[in-house]
């Protein structure tokens, strides 16, 4: 039995253990991994945690899933798969690096989404933006709505690799969830939420118009703004002054009727 710590993501810890075993030859290329139930009993976690770990291993290229058969180590599994440790996301410096990755990835994804999105993809982006508007108005946590919005943009590219990488990284793409920006309050918090809403609205409207250049610019503005806010935080993640990029016109509310 492997005893996991309660610090950090349980699924990430399982990924670390299993990928280590693959590199060490404990699980050989082409071999089947232990069943879900065996992993549940070994790590003393829920089925959901095990499935999340398997999904991350699959996205990293280490394993493949054969429906009704099981999970197998890829015959061409990379020796060192791409992996970001969730534990490092407590550090502003590391979170900033992840945002730099997002800028490189999502700016072009937004441009592609604007030129390729079909009616279904646009409806998904619109619904995700409407949810952002709703949770801000009700004062609910916006992390999941934010994640869903950016995932819908990645999906609208029509390129499965954008979506696959996005799904692998998941919430690691959103370092503010691991910092202490939730400590913002009063007018500072409201200013942040208004800016957050406007930035996403501008992205949505550009994609809706099919304007790749504007979508690219709006996504870059949003992510650079996020990076500036993150860099203004103290070394422990406590929010500092709220810097803002040049003002953009307010985004219209989505028509969700």
Automatic annotation (TrEMBL):
Residues 8-76 form the HTH gntR-type domain. The keyword ATP-binding does not apply. This is DNA-binding transcriptional regulator, FadR family. Pfam families: FCD, GntR. InterPro entries: GntR_C, TF_FadR/GntR_C, Tscrpt_reg_HTH_GntR, WH-like_DNA-bd_sf, WH_DNA-bd_sf. SUPFAM superfamilies: GntR ligand-binding domain-like, Winged helix' DNA-binding domain. Residues 238-257 have a biased composition (Pro residues). The keyword DNA-binding applies. Keywords: DNA-binding, Transcription, Transcription regulation. It comes from Devosia enhydra. Residues 230-257 are annotated as: Disordered. One of its GO terms (molecular function) is DNA binding.
């Amino acid at each position: 039995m492997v005893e996991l710590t309660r610090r950090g993501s349980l699924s990430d810890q399982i990924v670390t253990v299993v990928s280590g075993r693959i590199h060490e030859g404990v699980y050989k290329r082409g071999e089947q991994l232990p069943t879900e139930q065996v992993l549940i009993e070994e790590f003393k976690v829920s089925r959901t945690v095990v499935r999340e770990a398997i999904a991350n291993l699959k996205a990293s290229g280490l394993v493949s899933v054969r429906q009704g058969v099981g999970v197998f180590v890829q015959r061409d599994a990379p020796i060192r798969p791409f992996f970001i440790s969730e534990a490092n996301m407590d550090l502003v410096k590391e979170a900033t690096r992840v945002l730099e990755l997002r800028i490189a990835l999502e700016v072009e994804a937004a441009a592609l989404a604007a030129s390729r999105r079909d009616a279904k993809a646009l409806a998904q982006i619109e619904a995700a933006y409407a949810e952002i508007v709703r949770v801000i108005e009700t004062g609910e946590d916006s992390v999941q709505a934010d994640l869903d919005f950016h995932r819908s943009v990645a999906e609208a590219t029509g390129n499965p690799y954008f979506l696959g990488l996005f799904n692998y990284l998941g919430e690691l793409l959103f370092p503010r969830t691991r910092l202490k920006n939730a400590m913002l309050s009063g007018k500072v918090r409201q200013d942040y939420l208004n800016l957050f809403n406007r930035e996403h609205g501008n992205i949505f409207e550009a994609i809706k118009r099919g304007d790749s250049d504007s979508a690219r610019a709006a996504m870059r503005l949003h992510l650079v703004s996020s990076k500036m806010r993150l860099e203004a935080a103290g070394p422990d993640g406590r929010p500092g002054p709220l810097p803002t990029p040049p003002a953009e016109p307010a985004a219209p509310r989505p028509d969700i009727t």
